[in-house]
Every structure is written in C-alpha cells, then in structure tokens.
Specification:
Elements lengths: L2 H51 L4 H7 L4 E2 L9 H16 L16 E13 L2 H18 L5 H53 L13 H9 L3 H6 L34 H14 L15 H7 L4 H26 L1 H15 L5 H28 L17 H4 L2 H7 L10 H11 L2 H18 L10 E13 L5 H7 L6 E10 L1
Antiparallel strand pairs: 1-3, 2-3, 3-4
Helix pairs in contact: 1-3, 1-17, 4-8, 4-16, 5-10, 5-12, 5-15, 8-15, 9-10, 9-16, 10-12, 11-12
C-alpha cells in the first residue's frame, strides 16, 4: 500500500474542511462585528450629544446654577445648523480615533464612517413660559440647599391664604365705608339746611354746630391722596435705574423648541421651593446699591415695571394692602380699640344728633386707624425692622392720639427692630400670592439683563438649549466578509447604521 497517496488525500480534505470552518468563523465574526459596530455607533452618538451639551453657558451656571447651551455660540444669531456642525465635529473624532493624529498600525475593528447627523428636536430655556428654567431651579435647590424646611414653607403658604382673605375683606369694607360716609354727609348737609330754614322762618340767625378740631379722618384723607412710596420713604435714596422692556423674554413672542419638557417637579411645595430660589439669587431693596441693571430685582419679578422706583412703588402698595387687611382684622376684634373709636366718633358727630353719622364715623375711624398703623408697619419694614402678621396689644404701635399726627410719626422712622417678619419675609408672602409662571419669566428677564450687563451682550434666554434629540447615520465597511464571499458566494454589502439619542440637562 502506497502511504504517500493516503497522506496527500488527507491533507487536501483537511485543508478544505479548515477553509469551510474558517469561512464560517469569519461569517460569525463579521456578524458579531456588525452588532458591535451598532453598539459602538449608539455609544458614539450618545457621547456626541453629551459633548455637545457639555459646552454649557459658564456664566449662567456659575451665577444661577442653570445649565443651557447657547444656540448662537456667542454671535447672537440662532441657527440649529451651527449646533449640528458642532455635533458632527464631536462624533467624527469618536468615529475615527486617528483623526488629526499620526498613528500607524492602529487597528479599528468597527470601520465606521459618519455619513450624516441631524438635530431633529430641541427644547429651550423659555419653553412653556420658563418651565425648563423652573425645573432646573427647583432641582438645584433640592440638591444644594439643605436649609429648606418644608414645614416652614407651608406655614408661609397658610399665612398667604389668611392674608388674601383679609385683603378682600378690608377692600370691601373700605368701599362700603366711602359710600356710607357720602350718604351720612348728605344727611348732615340736609340737617344743616333744615336748621337754617327754620331759623329764617322764625326770623332768627341759625346757630350751627361747630365741628371739633383735629379730626384724624381729615389727616388720613390727605395721606390717601399722596404717593405711598413717598410717605414711607421720606428722606431715603431710591434707585433711579431703569431697563428697556422691549427685548426681554417676558415681553416678547419667543422662539419655541419642539421637544416636550419633563415635569419632574410640580405642585405647591415645588412652587415654594422655586420662590426660595428667587430670594436666594436675586437682590431686593434691602440689599442696597449694586452693579446690576436693576437694584430691586425681586421687586421687578413682582411688579414687572421698567424702573426700580416703579417696582418698589408696586411692592410698597401691596405691602400696605396686606397690613391694612391684617390690622383692620385686629381693630375689629380688640375691645379697647373699639371703645376708643366709638368715643371719638361721638365727639366728632354728637353735635349733629345723627346716630347714623356716628356709626359711620366709627367705622371710618377703624379703617383709618388700620391704615395709619399699616403706614407705620411699611415704614418699619423699609427701615430693616420686623412686623408680625397678626398684631396684639404689645405689637400695636400707633395710638389714637397719634393718628391725627401720623405724618410726624412716620418721619420719626422705625423704633427698634421689632418681632415678626422682615421685609424679605413679606416679599416671600407677595411671591406666594403671585403667579409662578409670570415670576419665572421675569426672573429670566433679570438673568438676561444681568449677563448682558456683565459683558455677554449677545446672551438671550430664548437661544438657550436645554435638551436635544439627535440622529446619526454611519457607514460600516466589511472586514471579515472576503473569505465567506469567495467560498459561499455570499454578497458583500456595506452596512448603514442609524442611531438616535436624546439628552437633556
């Protein structure tokens, strides 16, 4: 038997078998490589999105803790194509690790090439009336401020409800009192005319009753016609700064993104936390002068006027109304105050013999006393003192004797710091009484004006991107498909891989 012949036939058979197995292995490896390339494409797309949002606006983050990508890249012209160019640049470096590097012999098993990328969706900081800003601000406070006491914030909310009810009650009583006073004055006039007619018929001179001097209602009537801001500030220096409202986010029709905003934070507690964010990041009248575009920023968020003076005037009038409502409640409930006003009403009107006039005057004195006490309260707050929400005998400061000389009392200013809430605390109450939607847009107004004032002139809140949805298309060339094609006559085709990614701050 010729052994050489047998050896040759075994070698050919083994070679053919090895080629078949090797072709099969290459086919399996190529299939696995394609799947790995798909995973790599997903990773690269995600890294591109992450790198894109990594170019967040530094000043906005450092000063306000808010992340966003400037969609204009500093030139003031928003074009999503520019953002897409940056995305393509980031993806290209991850697709080709050898880009801009002189590396020889570097094996890339994926053989991916970027064909195209597209930003199909984005969300802006101003979308949903500042909803994105609100979400980030609340999240920032939850993560960075350990001093937030939910129970304490809820107490402020309870006070807010009581204050709102008392404001309404006081306003209605003041309106009714004005009508009743007019009617009583007409009755008094008619009586005087009757006395004159009777005296003329009898051929005598009518002896008309003389009204008492130092009627506090007259002094209060004069004060009501004056500017409350001028009354409670007197010799204080009020900031004369102003801004142009024309280009601010809250005053314009804004560019809108096309991605929905995830509302992780909502409800009363989130609103209270957001308002704490406002008080922590924006200045007030009590903070004094600054280099900001406006000094009274919280006052602007409340009032929305173009100047510090007008915003402070708005806040002062709101504070006065709050205190009027609460002080009138105390006047109604305190027996001593009611006795004093009743006695004074008799002195002021008893000579006319009109019980209805006495009753109306008594009610007017209660309202006037509450108004005078409220002016003193606001003066105390602006001087850095404290005023409790609910008054008692110890915290009531204005006597009925001083009601007629209220102007002199106000000129004397605050006496001691007092107890209760500070000016900042009352601003918190005013924020809780207002609309959170308008507050978050006006806060963006302040952010925009401040950053522009500090040198970032092209910054606009409506150009700030907070979320993106991107898509990328990759070309994947075959690597291990040559042998299977030659053996099994399998077609060798390039693979196109489509990947999408969504990311937000």
């Amino acid at each position: 038997m010729d052994r050489k012949g047998y050896k040759g036939s075994i070698t050919v058979f083994l070679s053919l078998s090895c080629i078949l197995f090797l072709s099969l292995i290459c086919a399996v490896v190529e299939s696995a490589r394609i799947q790995g390339a798909r995973a790599q494409a997903a990773n690269i797309t995600g890294m591109g999105s992450f790198s894109l949002l990594g170019e967040f606006e530094k000043d906005l983050f450092e000063k306000y803790g808010i992340f966003s990508l400037d969609g204009t890249y500093g030139n003031g012209s928003f074009q999503i194509e520019k953002v897409n160019e940056r995305l393509q640049d980031y993806i290209s470096y991850n697709v080709n690790p050898r880009k801009d590097l002189f590396l020889a012999g570097c094996f890339d098993p994926w053989r991916l090439e970027l064909e195209d990328s597209d930003i199909s969706g984005y969300a802006l900081l101003t979308d949903g009336r500042g909803e994105s800003f609100y979400q980030q601000a609340v999240a920032y406070m939850k993560e960075n401020t350990v001093a937030i006491a939910a129970e304490k914030l809820m107490e402020y909310a309870k006070d807010t409800d009581e204050i709102k009810n008392r404001e309404k009650d006081y306003t209605e009583n003041l309106k009714n009192s004005s009508l009743q006073i007019d009617q009583a004055e007409n009755a008094k006039k008619e009586k005087l005319e009757t006395m004159e007619s009777e005296a003329a018929a009898a051929g005598t001179v009518a002896v008309l009753p003389e009204e008492p001097e130092n009627n506090p209602l007259e002094e209060i009537a004069k004060l009501r016609k004056k500017s409350t801001l001028a009354i409670v500030t007197w010799d204080k220096n009020i900031s004369q700064k102003s801004i142009n409202l024309r280009n601010l986010p809250s005053k314009n029709v804004l560019r809108k993104g096309n991605l929905p905003i995830e509302k992780k934070n909502s409800g009363l507690t989130s609103d209270l936390i957001f308002r704490e964010y406002l008080l922590e990041h924006f200045r007030t009248y009590a903070d004094g002068h600054s280099e900001k575009a406006l000094d009274y920023q919280i006052e602007y968020i409340l009032g929305g006027r173009e100047s510090d003076e007008k915003n402070l005037k708005y806040v002062v009038n709101r504070l006065l109304l709050i205190r009027e409502g609460m002080n009138y409640l105390y006047c109604q409930q305190d027996p001593s105050i009611n006795q004093q006003t009743s006695a004074l009403a008799v002195v002021l009107t008893g000579v006319f013999g009109l019980p209805v006039l006495t009753e109306v005057t008594n009610q007017a004195l209660l309202l006037a006393w509450a108004y005078g006490e409220s002016l003193v309260d606001v003066r105390i707050l602006l001087d850095g003192g404290r005023v409790p929400v609910f008054k008692d005998t110890l915290t009531w400061s204005l006597s009925i004797e001083n009601l007629g000389r209220i102007t002199e009392v106000l000129q004397e200013g605050a006496k001691g710091s007092g107890t209760g809430l500070s000016y900042a605390d009352y601003l918190r109450v005013l924020l809780n009484l207002g609309s959170v939607k308008s507050q978050r847009m006006r806060a963006l107004d302040m952010i925009q004006t401040d950053l522009q004032e500090e040198g970032n002139e092209a910054f606009k809140a409506e150009n700030c991107i907070v979320a993106v949805k991107v898509g990328a298309s990759y070309h994947c060339s075959p690597v291990f498909a040559g042998l299977p094609k030659a053996i099994f006559r399998v077609s060798q085709k390039d693979v196109t891989i489509e990947q999408k990614s969504s990311m937000s701050y």
